[in-house]
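job 3f2a | input accepted
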Amino acid sequence: MKQNDNLVKLAKITNTAASFLIFLAGLMLIFLPSTEVTSLQRTVLAVLFLLTGAAKMIGYYSNDLYRLAFQFDFAIGILCALLAGLLAFLPQRVLPTLPVLLSVYVILDALLKLQIAMDARRFGMESWIAILCSSLLLGLGGLFALSALYSSFLTPSVAIGIALGMTPLVGELYAQGDREKSSGLLQNGILFYGLLGVAMAAVQYAVIPLMYHLGQPAEVVDMAIPYYRMLVWSMPFIMLFFTFKQFLEGVGNTKVEMFVTIAANLANIGFNWVFIYGRYGFPEMGAEGAGLGTLMSRIIAPMLMIGYFYSRSKYRVYLEGFSPRNYSWASVRQLLHMGLPISMQMFLEASAFVGTGIMMGWFNKETMSANQIATTIGNCAFMIVMSIGAATTIRVSHCYGARDIGQLSLAAKASYHLVLAWNALAALVFITMRNVIPTFFTTNAEVIAIASNLMVFAALYQLSDGIQNVSVGILRGIQDVKIIMPIAFVSYWLLNLPAGYLFGFTMGMGPSGLFLGFSFGLSAAAVMMIVRIRRSISRLHANGNSQSTIRNS
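job 3f2a | predicted structure (553 res):
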């Protein structure tokens, strides 16, 4: 026992020291991106990652109460070891993207620590406040760094992913007819998600000066900042919109969000025309006007949602007695418990696409353009897949709340059949129209040729992408969400990105090899999630459709 205590203490000391030094290195790379990294500095950084990984793995295998603080550290330890290996053996490739890798590492570690803090509080451990504070500080630092790099893509996904946790909770309560608890979730969601949006906006606004240190032409940054400065303040309104949107999805109402989204987009077009070009007496604002127009449209969206709720008596009751004084940590904890794993899964999946895009930039600008075309077309097909996944979560959560496992299984099968049909059609279109679709975007022959090849490889992962998305929807619906984060980590960071690099660079397949990596990552995610779903549903059947057997398993 004493030996184990010594190992835990050693893990804590090593982890703390190495993490602090990595944090300093990250600050240097972000604020001084032009600083030359010597071979010795690279080696030291690799050793730090290796020591951190070892410390976390040692802590994971401890056998006392402190193990709670290390419960996710095996995965983080693997990530540290992976970063150490990349720094040691592929320095030319890794160093330009090291700020991104460090940011992702810090954010993942922070989100996992937030989950740990909630578990520690539940078990009555006094250290939960310290864990929570360290999580918030780490998360703020990671988001600060990442916002400077990819604020418009990755950072909002963290917040929106957390909001998605409301749908399965409300869906279960709706099926059980528990209006009081549903109301508590909505009202606390308004407060919590709104404050989260304000925090995200503040972080994004604070990193604006760093945009000049990212190696982009100064004149481009000068044009982008006015637009970006307007856009960041839309985050609180985005989060409010998603609060009402996810609640309505939970009760099975998806029409309203569609009409509100259409209205907001039409308003955005109108505002852009007015503010960009200076119509109806307004000054010509250019890029700043585009940002203002988008901000106004995003303010309108939650306002329309609030108006709809108060205009319908069956929804107005959910807002009765709303007051910040009614804040409930228990409700927020439920939302976080459900939303954090979803957020981490979305973050890891999105970061795989960002990582692939970064590696595309290692070739040339034509390849980057071709990747953007292929990714855009793929995203168009994925919009339908996301809709099917969202519908699956709604239907499955209702069956789960009613404890009707037979209907739940039928709903899952129907979703798989629907998404497979759609993705098979999408794959067919990608292949047959591969030489035509890129011409809608460019006349550059080299870009068209590369994009055509990428669309063939995009077709290869369509079926697995559809299956994994619907599987995520099913797991959300039965509230079995803790598993989706480690599956995403293994699939996208340990398989997708390394396989893409192997095929693209080591084996000389070029950009097509990077896209082939998606086939491995998404297929692995699909297989692991299906296995988990079969296991979870079997447990529900075997235990008399009991809810407790599936939660937190």
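job 3f2a | The chain has three domains: 1-150, 154-327, 345-553.
job 3f2a | closed
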